[in-house]
Amino acid sequence: MKKSTRPPTYGLMAEFDNPTDAVAAAERVYEAGYRRIDAFSPYPVEALSEAIGVHSTKMPLIVLIGGVLGGLGGYFMQYYVHVINYPLNVGGKPLHSWPAFIPVTFELTILGAALAAVFGMLALNGLPEPYHPVFNTPNFALASRDRFFVLVESLDPKFDRDATRAFLNSLGPREVTDVQH
Amino acid sequence: MQKVEQPHDDIHLTPNVIEPGHTFGSVTDKISALALRKRTPIGWFLGFTLSFAVANVLMFTIAYLLMTGIGIWGNNVPVGWAFDIINFVWWIGIGHAGTLISAILLLLRQEWRTSINRFAEAMTLFAVSCAVMFPLLHTGRPWLAAYWLFPYPNTMGMWPQFRSPLLWDVFAVSTYGSVSALFWFVGLIPDFATLRDRAKGKFGKVVYGMLALGWRGSAKHWARYEATYLLLAGLATPLVLSVHTIVSLDFAVAVIPGWHATIFPPYFVAGAIYAGFAMVLTLTIPLRKFFGLEDFITHRHLRNMAKIMLATGLIVAYGYMVEAFMAWYSQNTYEQFMILNRMTGPYAWSYWALIFCNVMVPQILWSKRVRHSTFALFAISMVVSVGMWLERFVILVTSLHRDFLPSSWAMYSPTIFDWSMFIGTIGLFFTLLFLFVRFLPIISIFEMRTILPQAEMAKED
């Protein structure tokens, strides 16, 4: 989207004071065919994520890959050190004494998986992201306290400032507000 | 809000996990106010000053140690490992309760863990920080330890020895420290966002804002966040069991009588959780009192922790019995001598003090009345902390001081620097803890919201 065609606002935000209404509203918004939508809650509400169409995440796969890489890397690091780079006979033990390599392999598997989990989550979520237009919403500070919000972005093909506002107002929110860029 | 009178005083009813009458707002405001308040209570300054003074004892000890060498400690052949390793194992063990609460109890869906996990995880991190100092300084020249401990390509072409349990320990403890820190930080992100949105001053807004990484509570983010949090818990669970297992292998792989035992891994893990819960109780009981958190950390929490302490205490007692039994059953002269020497030798006082602290005293936790008394729990958990320290003393010193040949027998006694180093780490631990309770949310705010009745979705169909 070029700057010249940028819509005047980022979107419309409907504010709710309980999770049940917010989830019902998010479901209606999704059913109405809006797709560039989001919802905000002060704690994880699984139904809310489901309502806006998030049914699964890539996290398990990322963690699996991190774990496998950590484990293989850990094992071959030890193999490289003791068999290839500096073979040293210690107490007549075989150079490739694999049982002794297991504890470090295990630890590095966990480390790889945990690093992949945290940094993968942050990367997919696009964090850290110091500025975001939704923070311009009045009352948005309450999204980290006790309010629930449903957002329709103005880039959504179905978005129409008046029609969408009327539609959101019909869902029983406390308030519907414009979100400035 | 008015406080509903609760069955606080009836010990036969199961107390609530959170006292009734709270809302999303009240939970948020109460916990965030503790971190954001302008006025710091005078008690905090007193506690912090005292802890910081004691932490300085550690600093001076380390400075003297680095200038002089580890000869300032009392350990010498045959007791080559003493306070340094005792304290290392003691601190690492204490950390284990934090991970158990945050990871294992999360997977087991124990709702009550929610109000103590943040705090227990902080305790884990601080305990691990204290623990790693000991083996690192025991190398004598920690600036060289980089290539003794970590495999990085260096100009000498040298590598560490991966077949040694001591190196496994390096990987276990550093992984444990890193994963605990990640887990803690991930848990804090939504709460940092809460503090950022509540902070009044510019400084608080900026600092908490940076720490929150721009978290905005998007449902798309929460979905990944929840998956990540559960996966981290799943990863931390085997990790925490592996860490003390590997610590125990430092001993069990050696051929010293009293160390060379297959029961060590489970016995050490149980002992770690035992000591850890004792420390969580020791810290929680004054904390909930001073910060007025009785609504969030109720008798339910204290009672459950006491039960876990009792259960792990019994496993530890079983470990002591098996050690004695195996000494007899093995018909091995050295094993038999080791256990007799523990019970009747020059350090017999430490063995019997250990049995008193770790086996006898905790049995009064069978009584519901005792589990309901915060004072009794506080006293018992102190006794257990001492007992678990004595356990490591017994395992290390009594096993080493009678070597295979009587010509190399010797006695061990700690020097003033052994003590100043140990006490100094306690000061460091409490310094970090005081900073934590002042500036960070000591209870996970977003998780507390999830256990409120309002978080239940109304049924529509």
What do these coordinates show?
The complex is a heterodimer of chains A (181) and B (461). Chain A has 181 residues and is α+β, with helices and mostly antiparallel strands. Chain A has two domains: 9-56 and 130-179, Alpha-Beta Plaits (2-Layer Sandwich), CATH 3.30.70; 59-124, no CATH class. Chain A is 45% helix and 12% strand. Chain A is built from five helices and four strands, in the order E-H-E-H-H-H-E-H-E. A four-stranded antiparallel β-sheet of chain A has the order 2-3-1-4, covered by helices on one side. In chain A, helix 3 runs antiparallel to helix 4 (98-124). The longest helix of chain A has 27 residues, at 59-85. Chain A is elongated and about 80 Å long. Chain B has helices at 24-36, 42-68, 83-107, 117-138, 145-149, 165-198, 202-212, 219-252, 264-290, 299-330, 333-344, 348-360, 368-372, 374-401, 416-439, 445-450. The model of chain B is unreliable at 1-7 (pLDDT under 50). Chain B is globular and about 75 Å long. Chain B is mainly alpha-helical. Chain B has a single domain, classed as Formate dehydrogenase/DMSO reductase fold (Up-down Bundle), CATH 1.20.1630.10. The chains are: A alpha+beta (181), B mainly alpha (461). Chains A and B meet through helix 1, strand 2, helix 2, helix 3 and helix 4 of A and helix 1, helix 6, helix 8 and helix 16 of B.
